[in-house]
């Protein structure tokens, strides 16, 4: 059964149908189905090993399902439209010996055929000063996460996939990140977040999907306040 709101519009950002992912004899995902609507925020919760990050990587086109199908933006497979998908992993994927602008300038060069934000524009969108001369390795955890988000936003993706974006952040930094994501969601981006901190994501969660042992255990409406 596909899990989606009863009043879901005909246009979907993504459709996951009966997806399983095997690593040898271990099933990280087991027949997962879910529809993702444009402009909504989906929060994936569950214990370690539940399959949250695996599902995110499949949506990002970094893993292929062992069984089932994933379609994004119509009838496309994720690897075919990867420049329309922004993926922020648990690791920052940025260089400690460079400034934020230098990091983003390098990553912008990886999208030669797409009109990207400038590094300064991306940093301003996440509330950072583009002129800050400090090296990325000297940033606080909150600043590191926001710079990572700026990297993801460079090609202005329509589907934003964030793996544990609140990890190791203090309460104030988490609140700032949530406010940023609320603004991006209202820009009609679809956002999918994995987190162990359900309460942190509650202000922007339109839907909460709980995974357990690779299966969808529940799919509940959230109560976004931002």
Keywords, please?
single chain; 226 residues; alpha/beta; Rossmann fold; three-stranded antiparallel sheet; 6 helices; globular
Describe the structure.
The chain is of the alpha/beta class. The protein has a domain at 41-53 and 83-221: Rossmann fold (3-Layer(aba) Sandwich), CATH 3.40.50.300. The protein has 6 helices and 9 strands; from the N terminus they run βββαββαααβαβαββ. It has helices at 52-59, 100-108, 119-125, 141-153, 171-186, 198-201; strands at 14-23, 26-36, 41-45, 67-72, 85-88, 159-163, 190-194, 207-212, 215-221. Strands 5-6-7-3-8-9 form a 6-stranded mixed beta sheet, with helices on both faces. A 3-stranded antiparallel beta sheet has the order 2-1-4, covered by helices on one side. The chain is globular and about 50 Å long.
What's the topology here?
Layout: E1 14-23, E2 26-36, E3 41-45, H1 52-59, E4 67-72, E5 85-88, H2 100-108, H3 119-125, H4 141-153, E6 159-163, H5 171-186, E7 190-194, H6 198-201, E8 207-212, E9 215-221
Parallel strand pairs: 3-7, 3-8, 5-6, 6-7
Antiparallel strand pairs: 1-2, 1-4, 8-9
Gist of the model:
By secondary structure, the chain is an alpha/beta fold.
Q: How many DSSP E strands?
A: 9
| Strands ordered across the widest β-sheet | 5-6-7-3-8-9
The CATH topology of the domain at 41-53 and 83-221 comes to Rossmann fold
Overall mean confidence score, pLDDT:
92
């Amino acid at each position: 059964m596909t899990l989606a709101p009863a009043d879901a519009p005909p246009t979907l950002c993504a459709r996951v149908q009966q997806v399983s992912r095997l690593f040898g004899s271990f099933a990280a995902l087991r027949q997962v189905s879910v529809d993702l609507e444009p402009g909504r925020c989906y929060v994936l919760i569950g214990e370690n090993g539940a399959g949250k990050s695996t599902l995110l990587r499949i949506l990002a086109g970094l893993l292929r399902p062992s069984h089932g199908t994933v379609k994004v933006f119509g009838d496309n497979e994720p690897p075919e439209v990867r420049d329309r998908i922004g993926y922020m992993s648990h690791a920052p994927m940025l260089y400690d010996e460079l400034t934020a602008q230098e990091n983003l300038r390098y990553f912008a060069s990886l999208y030669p055929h797409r009109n990207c934000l400038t590094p300064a524009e991306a940093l301003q969108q996440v509330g950072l000063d583009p002129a800050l001369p400090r090296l990325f390795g000297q940033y606080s955890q909150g600043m590191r996460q926001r710079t990572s988000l700026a990297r993801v936003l460079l090609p202005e993706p329509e589907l934003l996939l964030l793996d544990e974006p609140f990890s190791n952040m203090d309460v104030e930094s988490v609140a700032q990140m949530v406010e940023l994501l609320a603004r991006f969601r209202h820009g009609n981006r679809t956002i999918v977040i994995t987190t162990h901190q359900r309460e942190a994501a509650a202000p922007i969660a339109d839907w909460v999907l709980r995974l357990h042992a690779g299966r969808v255990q529940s799919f509940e409406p959230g109560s976004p306040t931002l």
